[in-house]
Amino acid sequence: MATYDMDSALEAIQFFANSANSVRVFEALADGVTTSSALAERTCASRSTVARILDKGESRGWVESEGSQYELTYMGEIMTEKFRAYRQTVQGVQQLGEAVNYLPEPAQELDIRHFRDANITVPTEDWPEAHLNRALELYRTGDTYQGLTQNAPDIFVRTLADLVDQGRLEFEAIIEAEFIEYLTDDPERATPWHSIADQVWLYDGPITFSMHIIDETVVLWLGYIEDNQWIGPGLLETENPVVREWAESLYEEYRAEAEPLDPEVLPEA
After folding, report:
1. Per-residue pLDDT reduced to its tens digit, 77-129
2. How many domains, in total, are found in the chain?
3. What is the pTM assigned to this prediction?
4. Are 62 and 157 within one domain?
5. For position 42, what pLDDT does the model report?
6. Contact predicate 92/116, CB 8 Å
7. 200-203 and 170-176: which strand pairing?
8. Residue 10 belongs to domain spanning
9. Do 158 and 185 lie in a common domain?
């Protein structure tokens, strides 16, 4: 029985990790049979560099050739696919940075590779409300909005209600039922809710994260709400289709177990 050889495995990984040209050549080979000159043109590597990479690939059993034609073996396909997945995972982690530690628990089931093009807005010393302002900007420039949240800061509710009143936003949201109880004793705070009450659904249970779907963009808050304020490192937004599909599915799961808000429970100012 073959034994696991860590040094050999690391050496194979280094073949890709130590050479961007090796990655480019093998990813080009993954598209099908080609020539060394075509690879050089596509990857912008010199012909001698491509030839050296192909020779090393053949010696490892990852590449096979016939005349001037080269293609990946099945082993080469596996190595290329798995290294690409690892590289994209690293890109996802690097793109998120420290924010990866604050991903909402439901989002942690997603492959981190799908976040490699995500945008993170974080507060800074010079602009402590950068993430809040970014959220408001997304609301104001969007056409459709779906929200799934445990709470709702007043500035967000007022902005969304104004947009609905102006006919500029198609709105629907799910919120923890317990939160609405706080509005019944606060007519002033409840006022903007009258504009959106018929499109609000109440979920009888905890919602441990906050998520918006605005047009094609999924927005995830990185942190939590406390005393009507958001506590956390910022805001994540992505248009990745896999993340979008996940968000829509999750929203529908909560909506299936939610009940419409009765506008009559909201006090008049």
Report:
1. 999 999 999 999 999 999 998 888 889 999 999 999 999 999 999 888 888 88
2. 2
3. 0.83
4. no
5. 96
6. yes
7. parallel
8. 6-88
9. yes
